[in-house]
Amino acid sequence: MILSCAPLTIPIIGTECFRGCINFEKFVATRINIILDSCFSGCYNLESFEANGISRIGNGAFLNCYKLISINASNIYQLGNSVFSNCFALKSFNSIINTTLSYNTFSSCSSLVRFSAISVPEISNECFKNCKNLVSVLCQNITLLGNSAFYGCLRLADIDTFNVKILGNLPFERCLSLKNFNSSFITEIPQNLFKDCVGMIEVNSSCVTNIGSNAFKGCTSLKSINLPMLTSISDSSFSGCTSLITFTSTTLIEIGPNAFDNCHHMETFNVPSWTMNIIYDGTFRNCYNLIHIPDTSSVNTVGKESFMNCRSLESFNTNNLVTVQDRTFKGCTNLKISNTNIIKTIGYESFMLCSSITTFNFHSCTNLGESSFESCNISGTLTMNNTFSSIPHNSFRNNKISELYLRRCHIENGAFSDNNELKTLFLDTISLRDRAFFNSTNIKSIYLNGVNFFYENSLDLIHACVNYN
């Protein structure tokens, strides 16, 4: 059924005027100025709407017009809430004047591919929610993006955010194809803003100072970051950005836990003005290709797993380092360090598998975790005086120590196991546990002073010549 009002000019079509007219297929009028609320709502079979001069469309005017393909909307300046919501067949929308977009205006328009307008000052909450085929939004002067404005726009690649000043909650959630973010007004990127935007390639902003938690987490295509005013990065901000190679900032003063976790291809982290004294947990965990980091001479505490599996990392300035927590450098196979004489606490597995570490100064160390130096290459003579109460399980397992000096400490099971180059022991200990030197088969001489427990079934020492003082 075709309803033709031509050549009539209709100033206003009233509220719910044609609501539920399920047989309408086409509407034609010479000119309409205003369409009020719910006017064509539920016209399930309406495919085409032709009228010039429309300036305003009210709330829900075409709600649930499932088959609506096109509408002449070139002069619209105001669209109400849910105007085209659930118009599954609508493919494009064009306006040649300023247009304000309200709540849910195009939500679930699953065939909408392109939206264009000369200027759109505001895109309100859930405006394009679940427009899964929307590729581009071509409009200038957007200043506000509401909550979940583009939620589920899986194919959205381009939108001009240069003039955006206000960001709602998660406007780009599940925008898997979004390629870039460019802003000249936004100073803070909120948490989760671009999380899992796997198509994101570059980020540019001259004024962003803070990045919230998870803001770019899972942006696996992100390669370029240009944020010259950045001062703070929160938890997991760039976690999982597997294509990121270089990060540079001259103003950064704070990095949160897990900030660059799993950035597998990052090679260089360049922050010339580094002044932080703490590197938090997991900051660079699994950055396999990370070679260079800034001068860390100001750092006194390194958090859990902060550099774990950074197998390309070559150096770390430990001049002021006091605390190394659990698994901090585990798996850093190329790491070489020096000036460790003020380190007091070394956590569980903290240097495990650091096969390039051949020496370590334990002068100030008082706390040592299990497996802390397991499978390193500490070689030659190792001297540990009165600083330890205990040498924990597997602490120095599988090293290349040839001569060992220990005083007044408890040696746990496996502490020096699999040290096949170990030949001479000088032990002034409280107690020596069975299998402390398990499979260290080349021990020839043992000099004991004050050993309280020496188990008869210590087969790893059975061939050694024992001397008691």
From TrEMBL:
Pfam families: LRR_5. It comes from the Eukaryota. This is Surface antigen Bsp, putative. Signal peptide: none annotated.
